[in-house]
Amino acid sequence: MPVSIKEVAREAGVSVATVSRVLGKGPVSDALRARVERAIEITGYRPNLSARRLRSRRSQTIGLVVSDIRNSFFTSVSRAVEDAAYEAGWRVILCNTDENPDKEAMYLRLMQEERVTGLIFAPTRDTASRQDLDALGFPVVLIDRAGPATGVDAVLLDNARASAMLVDHLVDAGYRRIGGIFGKTSTTGQERRDGFAAAMALHGLPCETKFILPQAPAAEDSVGVWLDSADRPDAIVASNGQLLLGAFRAARRRGVALPGGVALAGFDNEGWTEVVSPGLTVIEQPVLDIGRTAMSLLVERLADAGISPRKVVFPGRLLIRGSTAGKR
Amino acid sequence: MPVSIKEVAREAGVSVATVSRVLGKGPVSDALRARVERAIEITGYRPNLSARRLRSRRSQTIGLVVSDIRNSFFTSVSRAVEDAAYEAGWRVILCNTDENPDKEAMYLRLMQEERVTGLIFAPTRDTASRQDLDALGFPVVLIDRAGPATGVDAVLLDNARASAMLVDHLVDAGYRRIGGIFGKTSTTGQERRDGFAAAMALHGLPCETKFILPQAPAAEDSVGVWLDSADRPDAIVASNGQLLLGAFRAARRRGVALPGGVALAGFDNEGWTEVVSPGLTVIEQPVLDIGRTAMSLLVERLADAGISPRKVVFPGRLLIRGSTAGKR
DNA sequence: GTGAAAGCGCTAACAC
DNA sequence: GTGTTAGCGCTTTCAC
User: Fold this and answer.
1) What is the arrangement of strands in the sheet containing B263-267, beginning at the earlier edge strand?
2) What range(s) does the HTH lacI-type domain occupy (chains A, B) (predicted)?
3) Chain A residue with minimal CA distance to B73?
4) B286 φ/ψ angles, rounded to the nearest 5 degrees
5) Which H or E run contains B264?
6) Contacts of A138 (CB under 8 A, 6+ apart)
7) CA-CA distance, A259 to A325, in Å (whole number)?
8) Pairing outcome for strands B178-183 and B153-157
9) Among the partner residues B70, B82, B272, nearest to A76 by beta-carbon distance
10) How many A/B residue pairs have CB atoms within 8 Å?
11) What angle do the packed helices A49-56 and B49-56 form, to 10 degrees?
12) Alpha-carbon distance A264 to A247, whole Å?
């Protein structure tokens, strides 16, 4: 049974108000402060955060709701968010939705029950366009994905531009029959596909794209079909790290050489993409900046709810490696 | 300003106690229950979890304190823990200590202030031997690392046995001059080294081992020195995924062929280890089982504080790949 | 500066 | 079954 502020007050011979002031930053004489601090030592007192939150009406907690923490993009973003949050004396509640709208709804409700100060959220496409994201009772910052202006802040990658960079690079290297696989559950997959298609059109090239579940096995199946077909593409673009892994496995398993049999490029500079041979050409996202920026936007929004919603867009960085070496 | 249980009661024309009973599992007539549920709908009521926790003295929260969520072992364990926790209606607070004892102490204090129901904890070597881990005010289950019996439950890998499996396999394949790098901050690194040394001794072989920071760059430097030296080992064992990555990079960067120039094996079946060429021989840990078992031990401990501390030890699984192909 | 007292939103006795 | 009431541990007026 933990000791309460009352026992500390008794031990120090002061009122609970004085103890509370020592804990916070109220005005307390040096003499009493010393006595209270001593009493805290002796009793081993630990403030009860639930009580503090209830009374002060400040939860000092932010929510972080993503699809899957095992996705390296979210792993890194979560570290950035958590570091910044704990630094500021806030707690983080992390939830994984697995791209499941029901889980999303459940966790949004949980965020309300926790009375979170704010939420950093990577929604599915369905939820991204919800009009009530700004009426949850706390500010929301979207990361990675955002629908048409829903009136909330967002931190995003310039997906269309990044896709175009990949396409331009591939065309430059002599590839023409380029296929693309994209995640079907997020606006991000959609944007990357649109950017891909637009860039291909600019080059006067036809393109073939597929929307699939954003998981490695789905990509392996999907790319496998392409590789086995008579009119195999000569290059493939994968819209995230998981899909890239699946595509890589499909090629590897069939003994299709990279880039001789098929060139391969994608999103997310996961550690393994550099270390396989050949290395994979990828778009690197500034994951730490994205996490930190999301926190900053949240903090600014908390300071001033009035400012109109901002969208911060980061450029991707093209890392050229052996998997897209020139065709000739 | 969120609505409280009071307003729901007024809307439904009942007492707050009845509303509370509908929320929980108290006995309420169907008629009143329906009215209350309707009132909850109308008002958009969300229970305040801080108030509930304060009053009920049950935080319904468990802590998960690990060194770094970006370490794939902990990423996977955390998913297992979180899934099990949310399933049971509990919240999870995740903290990263970066192998820093000061941060560990700070987060242990935070866990007390949160009045967590229980804690799943991967301590550094310094903290693992603290005698007061069972006096924090809540049960602790150690994962991945544990000191000499500290009187708390633990879920571990059979590190000595796993190291021996690697050594036996390498010796079997014809390697004799085998070096090992091990994490210096954890008991796990220590145990794996001891198991390694013991197995080498059984084979009558001398061994050279290094304790280093459990991070890829440190491993790259360390292994680089070996590879550049005149008496280069013919095989290297790395005691976790990060160290394995660093070792792999060191070999790759110097153009040292695997396994011709040096054989390489290690711990943690991270995705990339299968996908590089040659694939890397590794000890796979049952990460999901470890996470789930930690939760089970915690739940059982909460049900009965009396049972004496248990240590659940899982075997590792040796996955043989090209990086340790036979020497001749 | 300091203390007394009210009350944050909820659950759990306790009466009926 | 239902309502009344007393706190959970803390912060925050409000007096002094």
Assistant:
1) B208-212, B178-183, B235-238, B263-267, B281-284, B317-319
2) 3-56
3) A70
4) -80, 75
5) strand B263-267
6) A111, A112, A115, A116, A117, A118, A119
7) 6
8) unpaired
9) B70
10) 109
11) 130
12) 8
Nucleotides of D under 7 A from a protein CB: 1-5, 7-13
What's the CA gap between B20 and B16, in Å, rounded? Answer: 6
- For residues A75-91, give the mean pLDDT: 95
> Any atom of strand C under 7 A from CB of A312?
no
3-state secondary structure of A215: coil
Question: Is the bond into B259 cis (omega within 30 degrees of 0)?
Answer: yes
> B275 and chain A: CB distance < 8 Å anywhere?
yes
Total residue length of chain B: 328
As a dihedral over the C-alpha atoms of residue B257, residue B260, residue B263, residue B268, rounded to 10 degrees, the angle is 50
Q: Are strands A263-267 and A281-284 parallel, antiparallel or unpaired?
A: parallel
Average pLDDT, chain B: 95
Q: Is the dihedral of CA A5, A11, A16, A17 positive or negative?
A: negative
Print burial letters for A115-149: b (CB count within 10 Å at least 16), e (below 16): bbbbbbbbbbbebbebeebbebebbbbbbbbbbee
Q: Are B189 and B223 in contact (CB under 8 A)?
A: no
C-alpha distances in Å from residue B318, one per residue of A3, B197, B267 = 50, 18, 9
**For A27-68, what is each residue's pLDDT tens digit?**
999 999 999 999 999 999 999 999 999 999 999 999 999 999
Q: How far apart are CA A141 and CA B61, in angstroms?
A: 25
Token pair belonging to A63: 């929510």
Restricting to A residues 13-52, those with a Cβ less than 8 Å away from any Cβ of B are 46-51
Under DSSP, the state recorded for B174 is: T
Q: Which pair of tokens denotes residue A6? A: 């009352």
Whether B25 CB is under 7 Å from strand D: no
- Could you read off the pLDDT of A141-158 as tens digits, one per residue? 999 999 886 789 999 999
Alpha-carbon Rg of chain B, whole angstroms?
A: 25
Residue A198: its pLDDT value, please? 98
* Residue listed under structure tokens 């790319």: A223
Helix (H) or strand (E) holding B66: strand B61-66
In angstroms, how far is the first alpha carbon of chain A from the final one? 75
DSSP track, A72-132: HHHHHHHHHHHHHHHHTT-EEEEEE-TT-HHHHHHHHHHHHHTT-SEEEE---HHHHT-TT
Sort strands B178-183 and A317-319 into parallel, antiparallel or unpaired.
unpaired
